[in-house]
Design brief:
This protein folds into two domains: 39 residues; 467 residues, Orthogonal Bundle (Cytochrome p450), CATH 1.10.630.10. The protein has 21 helices and 15 strands. The N and C termini lie far apart (53 Å). α10 packs across α12 and α14 crosses α18. With 529 residues, the chain is of the alpha+beta class. The longest helix is centred in the middle third of the chain and has 32 residues. The strands form five sheets. The protein has a six-stranded mixed β-sheet with strand order 1-2-3-9-6-4, sandwiched between helices. A three-stranded antiparallel β-sheet has the order 5-15-12.
Length: 529
């Protein structure tokens, strides 16, 4: 490939040489070399300075930030290998240090004890703003408190709990029926991409619960929502790339490369969400909805009537997208890894299926619709092993594998390392799940039993099991997410057995803000009875 590329390039330079003087060509080459030298000095100069003038009170330096670029495809495993050597470490950027920790004591300090000092910060906000805007995951201060207050009210209402459970059951039944059709297809057509189906199901659920609309993406008929989902996932990945791309601002300014693609994808996302907001306003106006039974978006639209300047459509767009992220990506990604692990551990697969059957008291003649009626909250509460297996999946494959903050002031972490104002400070849920000093010698094994005492699920400290964050920013939708995942898992495991299409291949993640399985999860599904 290199020779193929170099041949036309050489011809081009020869042709140019006929028309441009050698001195001018030398000047151009000199400018290019100078630019490269300046770039290398900017990138590696601060790193070399930190190496030469090492401060033993600062976290150990493991490399320049460009090291992450080299290991980007397996970034979280690379960080894990570093965390096994240093529980806290740092990379050097041209402007500051990026510090990472896998120490639960440090995590508690960052997320709770000195919460006010560790904000999202301008560096993170700048990277995330084009996609996430001023949504709850990307802001601090008054806007974060305002959104959290409204969201907290919604998630605490019995109406939402009951309504969301009904929606989860309905959409889980639709998914089960869809898989039944695929399982009955000719052998050449029986392969299913379960990750794709789970993404569509959770997207349908969050749009019904959050926005009051039926997308029916699982049927494959809603083309606009499918375009939105692809554009959003690609935007997620491209935005995360900015953390290792030192030239992303220049590329955005000139609208080239990855930034041009990102801009196109965000335009698709924006058009879809703004249309959603417009339709919701019309629905509320035309139907005069009962204000005690509205979806989440309606609550924010009502609130915007009191403050139309600050809660404009752009702000509502950012809030709406935050709910999509929380409702679609986290649950679907976790369930994808969950079913992957069950395929790798058939005994656990079977044990959960038996627990579901016992808890629901369903029999072999129970239909998909009747099973939904049996899947009550009482039945779900009996499924301790399923809850443990989902938690074990989240321990090894957390929905958000790394969570970054920024230091507002100089500080000292509990492990004694100094933090400087402006440093990035992140904790590593993916790496922490693999640390033997946190979980024992079998930390990298998938073992749901570690969560059970006498068969009853026992939660762990949120500073050790950091999947849902902790402290003031702890995830409001934790119970919501577990309920959705348990309902979907129970439906699918009761009616189907799953097998990997290629049992020899190990799944890989796609490096982005959420732990998306790269290339999907391709399975065979067979009916249990």
């Amino acid at each position: 490939m290199k020779s193929l590329l170099s041949y036309p390039t050489t011809i081009l330079f020869i042709l140019i040489g006929f028309y441009i003087s050698p001195s001018f060509m030398a000047t151009i080459v000199g400018i290019i070399i100078s630019f490269l030298l300046v770039f290398l000095a900017v990138v590696f100069g601060p790193y070399l300075k930190e190496i030469v003038f090492t401060d033993r009170h600062r976290p150990p330096v493991v490399g320049p930030i460009s090291s992450q670029l080299v290991h980007f495809r397996e970034l979280y495993d690379y960080m894990t290998s570093l965390a096994k050597k240093h529980h806290t470490f740092r990379f050097i950027t041209p402007t500051h240090s990026e510090i990472y920790t896998a120490d639960p004591v440090n995590v508690e300090y960052i997320l709770k004890t000195n919460f006010v000092n560790y904000t999202k910060g301008e560096h993170n906000n700048g990277i995330m703003r084009d996609l996430f805007g001023e949504g709850i995951f990307a802001v601090d201060g008054d806007k974060w408190r305002h959104q959290r207050k409204l969201a907290s009210y919604e998630f605490s209402t019995k109406n939402l709990r009951d309504f969301s459970s009904d929606v989860f059951r309905i959409n889980a039944a639709k998914l089960a029926k869809k898989i039944s059709l695929l399982a009955a297809a000719p052998p050449s057509e029986q392969t299913i991409n379960l990750q794709d189906l789970l993404m569509k199901t959770t997207l349908d659920s969050i749009f019904k619960v959050g926005f009051g609309f039926d997308l029916d993406t699982v049927s494959g008929l809603h083309e606009a929502s499918n375009r939105f989902m692809k554009a959003f996932d690609d935007s997620n990945s491209l935005s995360f790339w900015r953390f290792v791309d030192l030239l992303w601002r220049a590329k955005r300014y000139f609208n080239i490369g990855s930034e041009a693609v990102l801009k196109q994808n965000i335009r698709i996302v924006d058009n879809f969400v703004y249309e959603l907001i417009r339709n919701k306003r019309e629905q509320m106006t035309n139907q005069n909805l009962n204000r005690d039974k509205e979806d989440i978006l309606s609550r924010f639209l009502i609130e915007s009537e009191n403050d139309p300047v600050n809660m404009n459509d752009k702000y509502l767009r950012d809030i709406s997208l935050s709910f999509v992220i929380a409702g679609k990506d986290t649950s679907a990604n976790t369930l994808t890894w969950f079913f992957y692990m069950l395929c790798k551990h058939p005994l656990i697969h079977q044990k959960i299926a038996e627990e579901v059957k016992t808890a629901t008291e369903a029999d072999d003649d129970t239909s998909v619709d009747d099973f939904g009626l049996k899947l009550t909250q009482v039945a779900l509460d009996k499924m301790h092993y399923l809850h443990a297996a989902l938690s074990e999946t989240l321990r090894l494959y957390p929905a958000v594998p790394v969570d970054g903050k920024s230091a507002e002031k100089d500080d000292v972490l509990p492990d004694g390392f100094k933090i400087k104002k402006g440093d990035g400070v992140a904790y590593l849920p993916y790496s922490m799940g693999r640390m033997t000093y946190i979980w024992g010698d079998d930390a990298e094994e998938f073992r749901p039993e570690r969560w059970l005492i006498s068969g009853v699920f026992q939660p762990e400290s949120p500073f050790k099991f950091t999947t849902f964050q902790a402290g003031p920013r702890i995830c409001l939708g934790k119970e919501f997410a577990y309920r959705q995942m348990k309902i979907l898992a129970a439906f699918l495991l009761y009616f189907f057995k799953f097998k990997l299409v290629d049992e020899s291949e190990d799944a890989r993640y796609r490096t982005m803000f959420t732990l998306h399985m790269d290339k999907g999860l391709h399975l065979y599904a067979t009916r249990r009875f």
